[in-house]
Design goal:
The structure is a homodimer. The first copy, chain A, contains seven helices and no strands. By secondary structure, chain A is mostly helical. At the A-B interface, helix 2, helix 3, helix 6 and helix 7 of A face helix 2, helix 3, helix 6 and helix 7 of B.
Chain lengths: 226, 226
C-alpha cells in the first residue's frame, strides 16, 4: 500500500502544480485586461498548452491507480475527487484563455469603456481560487466551506457590472465593441467562480465523504459515500 | 461479475434517462426563446431539479461499483467515463436553464431584436447532443467522432450571430436589452456544443481507451489506458 500512497501523493502534487499554473494564467489574463498588456495575454496562451498536457498525464495516473490497486473509502474518494479536480482545472485554464482573448480584442481599440467593477470582481474570484486550492492542499474542509458564500457575492457583482456596462453601451454606442468584450470578461469571471466552488465542494466530498452539491449537505440530508 | 454487469447496465440506463431529460430541457428552453413561450421555460426549471438528484444517485452508484469490485480495462474505463458523463449532463442541464432564464427576461419586452441564426444554431447543437448521446448508448465510436467537426461549425455560427446582433445593437439601441440576452443565448449554445463534444470524446475513450482530447488522438499520438 505504500506504493499506492507514494503515487497518490505524487498525483496530488501534480494537481497542485496545475492549480498554480491556473492561478498564474488567471493573473496574466486579468492583467492583460486591466493594464492592457498584450504580452501577458500571450503568456497565458502558452501556459494553457502545459495545462492540457498535465491534465492527460494526471488522468492516466489516477486511472492506473484505480486499476492496479483496490482503493477503499477515503483513498477511493480521493481518486474520484482527483478526476473531477483535474477536469475543473483544465476548464479553468480554458476560461482564463477566454479572458486573455477578450483582452487581445480590447487592445485593438483605444481604451474607451470603463472597466467598471472588473478589478474588484477579479480580486474576489482570485481569492476563491486560492482558498479552494489551499483547501485541497491542506484537506481543510472549513476553508473549503468558506468558498461557497463568495459565489453569491460574485453573482451580485456580475449583475452590477452588467447594469454598468449596459448603461455605457447606451451612453457611448461608438464603444459598443469594448463594452461587449468587457461584458464577456465578467461572465467568464462568474464561470471561474462556479468552478472554484466545484473544487471546494469536491474537497468536502473527498475529506468527509459528504455530498454538498445542490445544497444537499447544507440542508442536513448528508449522504455518506461508502 | 454478473452483479457488476447488471449494476453497470442499470447505471448506463440511468445516464441515458438523464440524457433524455437534458434533450427535453434543451428543446423547452429553445422553444421559450424562439416561440416566446413562458410555460416552456418553467417546465425546463422543473426538470433541472430532477437532473440534479439523478446526478448524485448515479455518482454514488458508480463510486459503489468502484469500491465493491475491482474493475479492470473496459469496465474501469466505463466507470471513469460514466463519472465524467454524469458531470457533463448536469452542466448541460444548467446551461439549458440559463437559456430558459434569458427567455424569461426576453418575454418582459416586446419582440424586437431579430433572433438571427439562433434557430439554425440550436438545430445543429441539438443534433450534436443527440449524436453524442446515441454514441454513448450504442458504444458507437464512428458516431462519436462525427460530432467533433460540428463544434467548429457552431463556433462559426456564434461569430456570425455576434456580428448580426452587434449590428442590431447599433441600429436599434432602444432594443439593447433584447440583443444582449440573445447574445447570451448564442454563447450558451456554444458552451452546450462544447459539452456535447466532451461527451463524444468520453465515448471514444471508454470504448477504445484512446485519448482524443486536445487533438492528441487525431495526431496519431494515441495513448492506451491500461
Amino acid at each position: 500500500m505504500s506504493k499506492f500512497c507514494d503515487e497518490q501523493e505524487r498525483l496530488k502534487r501534480r494537481l497542485l502544480e496545475m492549480a498554480a499554473l491556473v492561478e498564474q494564467m488567471f493573473d496574466l489574463s486579468i492583467r492583460a485586461v486591466t493594464d492592457r498588456e498584450a504580452s501577458a495575454a500571450e503568456k497565458a496562451f502558452i501556459l494553457e498548452g502545459q495545462i492540457n498536457l498535465i491534465e492527460i498525464e494526471i488522468d492516466e495516473g489516477l486511472i492506473n491507480l484505480l486499476a492496479l490497486h483496490q482503493p477503499m473509502a477515503s483513498n477511493l474518494r480521493f481518486l474520484v475527487a482527483g478526476i473531477k479536480m483535474n477536469t475543473n482545472l483544465e476548464r479553468l485554464g480554458d476560461l482564463a484563455v477566454n479572458i486573455a482573448q477578450a483582452a487581445k480584442t480590447l487592445l485593438q481599440y483605444p481604451p474607451a469603456a470603463p472597466i467598471v467593477d472588473i478589478p474588484l470582481m477579479a480580486g474576489l474570484v482570485r481569492s476563491m481560487l486560492r482558498k479552494s486550492f489551499d483547501a485541497f492542499a491542506l484537506s481543510d474542509v472549513e476553508l473549503a466551506r468558506g468558498v461557497l458564500p463568495c459565489d453569491d457575492a460574485v453573482d451580485r457583482m456580475r449583475t452590477s457590472c452588467y447594469h454598468q456596462l449596459r448603461a455605457a453601451m447606451e451612453d457611448a454606442p461608438e464603444h459598443l465593441r469594448q463594452s461587449l468584450n468587457l461584458l464577456m470578461v465578467t461572465r467568464t469571471l462568474e464561470r471561474i467562480a462556479d468552478h472554484a466552488t466545484n473544487v471546494a465542494e469536491d474537497v468536502v466530498f473527498f475529506v468527509e465523504g459528504v455530498e454538498i452539491r445542490h445544497g444537499l449537505g447544507l440542508q442536513g440530508q448528508k449522504q455518506k459515500v461508502r
